[in-house]
Amino acid sequence: xxxxxxxxxxxxPGRLGEAxxxxxxxxxxxxxxxxxxxxxxxxxxxxxxxxxxxxxxxPLILGNDLAGVVVTVGSHVTRFKPGDExxxxxxxxxxxxxxxxxxxxxxxxxxxxxNTSMAxxxxxxxxALTAWQVLVxxxxxxxxxKVLIHAGSGGVGTIAIQLAKHLGAFVATTTSTAxxxxxxxxxxxxxxxxxxxNFENVLHGYDVVLNSLGTDVLDKSLKVLKPxxxxxxxxxxxxALFAQEQGLSWPLQQVMRLLSLGIRRRARKQDIKYSFVxxxxxxxxxxxxxxxxxxxxxxxxxDRTFSFESTAxxxxxxxxxxxxxxxxxxxx
Length: 332
What we know:
By secondary structure, the chain is an alpha/beta fold. 31% of the residues lie in helices and 26% in strands. The chain is built from twelve helices and 16 strands. Strand 10, helix 5 (180-186) and strand 11 form a beta-alpha-beta unit. The protein is globular, with a radius of gyration of 19 Å.
């Protein structure tokens, strides 16, 4: 089958080549991939940024999102059947959605929202699950609370704004001048144009901050939060708790503890809780997200679509950091 692969870690663009057909385990669903989407995570994996955390072998098929059709199911699969239209973020140890087919554990899969195209569905899993696991699982965001979502025009930001509004929160976000009015349409109550304003001088008394930017933004975000607030980052630094949940060695747990020591100490001095969230595959949550999409509460946001042959170009485009919403690769 055709797949987009890398042969080693580095800044090389990857290549379209031939790969072996997936092996289908007893709990796996074999999916014909119709569309995938590109995430910043794909580039970070490609350059080796996560090689201490995620032990991949080469050649490695990239890709963390998919929408497609079930071809066959393993002997113990009960929730899906051939012909079902599904979408998923595969478990992190078994990525590879930039391919014509992939085998995915059934617990990571959900039926595709009926009102979406394959491209729209493929744009959702990673970013929607990230938003859910930050706002619902970790923050336990309540009606009337105030949340700041950084990078509101990005993949996670566009979905997180919509989900936060559905949960009844007051939403602030940061974006560039060109996207101010656009993110208001998504539901943001307050929009900070980072080219003209410093958000830490404008926003105060917030309950939650979702950070997807650099460490400098973390310190500034502390000024926005009230005592008892939560600073939740999806871009690091990671914590020892994360390392434990990943099953990493004791030395690596201590490395993670040291990496996050500074921000945890500064947060604690202000009675603020710092958390690092690394999204995990979850088909049950994805099915709940499907219901919100079908109800029109969450709408997919696609910036551009690339052909399978142009996957390398799609990765380069995402790396520029200018995409509004998601970038999709059509495979079938």
